[in-house]
Specification:
alpha+beta; 5-stranded antiparallel β-sheet; 3 helices
Length: 96
């Protein structure tokens, strides 16, 4: 979309009738960041299968998952692999 220079200031102005509510900002990334901070062991169901592990980081469009056996704590010796999982591939997240 191409706009003229005169249209730019209007596009940057705040929308007066829309207030930023917390419920509008809460999404999947918000919840996944909380699980990451808590170091929760979980199951991540994707289109290609099931992964169990702990979230190491949450990016804008993906999570970094340390894969380990369900029911074990995330310890270096327990981690089998590290996976980058796109948020668009996640179908279900379940605490284990």
């Amino acid at each position: 979309m191409i706009v003229s220079a005169a249209e730019v200031p209007a596009s940057l102005a705040a929308e007066p009738d829309r207030s930023a509510r917390l419920v509008d900002r809460i999404g999947l990334s918000f919840v996944l960041r909380d699980l990451c901070r808590r170091r929760s062991s979980l199951e991540v169901h994707t289109r290609t299968g099931l992964l169990t592990g702990t979230i190491d980081r949450v990016g804008r469009d993906h999570i970094d998952l340390a894969v380990h056996a369900a029911g074990t704590l995330r310890r270096t010796q327990e981690v089998h692999q590290y996976r980058i999982v796109p948020l668009a591939e996640i179908q279900l997240v379940r605490l284990s």
